[in-house]
Specification:
Elements (H helix, E strand, L loop, with lengths): L5 E6 L4 H15 L2 E4 L19 H9 L3 E5 L7 H12 L3 E4 L4 H9 E3 L13 E3 L1
Parallel strand pairs: 1-2, 1-3, 3-4
Antiparallel strand pairs: 5-6
Length: 131
């Protein structure tokens, strides 16, 4: 198991659903270990809300322990934190892969069927289903 590739999946909290599918594709197709942020569903939050608590130190530690970083770079989601993560990975000679130009992104797109005109509505509620 010592030679198993480790990949950290990074993206905006608005893309958590897509990140989960990417993580599954990476584990399933590339047989690698995947680090990813985790978000509790709203029904499990006891009224606290669904916000992700950013812990950049933990994100950087996940990246530091990885062979690759997979960035879910959906339009409008490449914020300052993601850019910092990409910069950190490159400074540490860790391979960076982008959803927009990667086979994992295409396979994720194939698994997700979006409904309506927009993938994400104004409230950032995502309407999708696995096919």
């Amino acid at each position: 198991m010592g030679n198993t590739k480790v990949v950290t999946v990074c993206g905006s909290s608005d893309s958590m659903d897509i990140m989960a599918v990417c993580a599954w594709v990476l584990e399933h197709d590339e047989r690698c270990i995947v680090h990813c942020s985790h978000l509790l569903p709203c029904w499990c939050m006891d009224g606290v809300g669904c916000d992700v608590v950013e812990n950049m130190d933990l994100c950087f530690e996940k990246i530091r322990s990885s062979d690759e970083v997979f960035i879910v770079d959906l339009p409008g989601t490449l914020d300052d934190n993601l850019q910092r993560m990409v910069g950190f990975a490159r400074e540490n000679n860790i391979k960076v892969r982008l959803y927009s130009g990667d086979i994992v992104g295409r396979k994720t797109d194939d698994k997700i069927s979006f409904h309506g005109d927009d993938r994400v509505n104004k409230e950032m509620d995502c309407w999708w289903e696995i096919v």
